[in-house]
Amino acid sequence: MELSLYDTQSRSEKIVTSKNSEVITIYCCGPTVYRDAHIGNLRTFLLTDLVVRALHVLGKKTLVVQNITDVGHMTDDFEEDKLLAQGKSESRSARDVARDYEGRFHRDLAHLNISPADHYPRASESIDLMFAHIQRLIDLGHAYVGADNTVYFSAKSFPTYGAISGNTLEKLKPGHRYDYVDDGAKQFHADWALWKSSPNRNEMVWNSPWGTGFPGWHIECSAMSLKFLEGHVDLHIGGIDLRFPHHENERAQSNPIVNGEAVSQWLHGEHLLFEGRKMSKSAGNVVLVSHLLDKGLDPLALRFCFLENRYRSQMDLSWESITAAHQTLAKWRLLAASTQPTARDSIQAVNQEVREIVNEIVSAFCDDLDTPRAMQILRSAVKSSLADNLKSSLLHAIEPLFGLALTRAIDVKEPSSEILQLLEERRAARAAKDFNLSDALRKRLDELGITIHDGPEGQRWEWKI
Q1: DSSP type of residue 415
Q2: Which residues are CB-neighbours of 22 under 8 A, at least 6 positions away?
């Protein structure tokens, strides 16, 4: 099997392959560390993890780079840098704010069992890389120093601009505010800043060959991806909101350096809604991992919910769905811990029977990460008449792919003597067909936290979640 993913640029599914070696190089746009990543951001970061897990299950090697933007961006009204604004609101330096939220970002990734990238280059520590990249673009005739001493990329110098998003230069009218606006400084209204001149700013600025200033939004990803992935990105991952202008501009900045396509495949994850609305600070519905912890919910319940939705589809999440996922996870972990195959011949049988289900699940992942189908296959197997030891083996087998900590050690409470006595009395009542007594005993056991399941094999119980 091979992993096939939807490529935004070609608008078709493509098999993920390595251009230069056996190692598949992956770049994922990382956070701007001026605030906590909300769960919508984390859905995109999980996308990279699912891709990597699928490739590893298929026996592929990967090299993953995710940038840390700690130099700030302009705010939406283009008046103040986000990091500087946050530092001012918290009475801290921008650097302290960045390091704090960077640490919190890594903690959130760990809560969701997202495997760490191989490298997390910081923008603030890659300024020289950006200088070299910008100078090369100037030398190639793709960039120029404007009248305001800001270095701009010449959009007209890149004929295939818009190939990813469809936003060609002809469609970008003057006054379209998607980047820095400096009247009279640009040669063309759609040009964007590679290096922003800022002689009057005294924090988060650097001395450059073009004067004091700071890097533009897009240049860091071009410079760092080509440096740390040795000149080519096999798979570039980000949220759909980055498709334009960020990834369009990044492609325009990177391709001239390598004299070809710097990225083989572009993968984008869709937006997340929460209880029917887009998450925003003004709406007061921004949800963080810490909010799940405050409610006593396992953060992996969030991962569970993400898996039940296709990454290319807009998703509407709710507290109800997260809570339901939390309960299902707990039940599956109890099942995974409940039994293990023992006899040698039964182990062989388990391996064969479980392998067929595992192959179905892997096949779903390979089909453009059809995780909803993979989850449905797993749910059906767990609910089926498959023996518990086979179900346990299945949960162990698919854990490296799903990353739900299904094999996590759990505290299993021992039933009290009263519960054991009531269970025996109920078993005897059912055998005697005394269903009134059986129902009364079920109610009593329910009050004690025991859920009863009756089936062809008799009475089965579990702790209520």
Answers
A1: P
A2: 60, 61
CA distance 48 to 27: 9
Instruction: Classify each residue of 347-371 as buried b or exposed e, where b means 16 or more C-beta atoms within 10 Å of its C-beta.
Output: eeebeeebeebbeebbebbbbbbbb
Q: How confident is the prediction for the chain on average, in pLDDT?
A: 90
Which tens digits make up the pLDDT trace of 423-456?
Answer: 999 999 999 999 999 999 999 998 888 888 887 7
Backbone angles phi, psi at 261, to 5 degrees: -80, 115
Rounded CA-CA distance 96/90 in Å is 10
Query: Could you report the per-residue pLDDT of 121-151, keeping only the tens digit for each?
Result: 999 999 999 999 999 999 999 999 999 999 9
One-letter amino acid of 48: T
Dihedral Cα 393, 398, 400, 404, nearest 10 deg: -100
Report residue 59 as tokens. 């026996």
For residue 292 the two structure tokens come to 């799940």
What value, to the nearest 5°, has the Cα angle with vertex 365 and ends 240 and 250? 30
Furthest C-alpha separation in the chain: 94
